[in-house]
Amino acid sequence: MGPDPILSQHLEDQQLAVGQQVVARWHDYRGRFSARAIVVVLKSRAVVVELLRAAGTHPAGHRLELPRISDFDHWASDYGVKRA
Hints:
- The protein has one helix spanning 5-14, and strands spanning 21-28, 31-42, 46-51, 63-67, 80-83.
- The protein has 84 residues and is mostly beta strands.
- The protein is globular and about 35 Å long.
């Protein structure tokens, strides 16, 4: 039996730090996007990242606020951040 994937994602979320590179994943009415980013603000239920590369209509340097796993109403495995 392998590790629990939700527990693994929870532990990964706890290791997030300001300045850390992550992969930001989000979606909107234009589609699904993914880009490398840097964590600039950590909140209890959200993380603010700054994109290192353009993605969709968002240029490099654009900031996004994405949910952390503790935000049960908004977080999803394809909507949030993952350590790079």
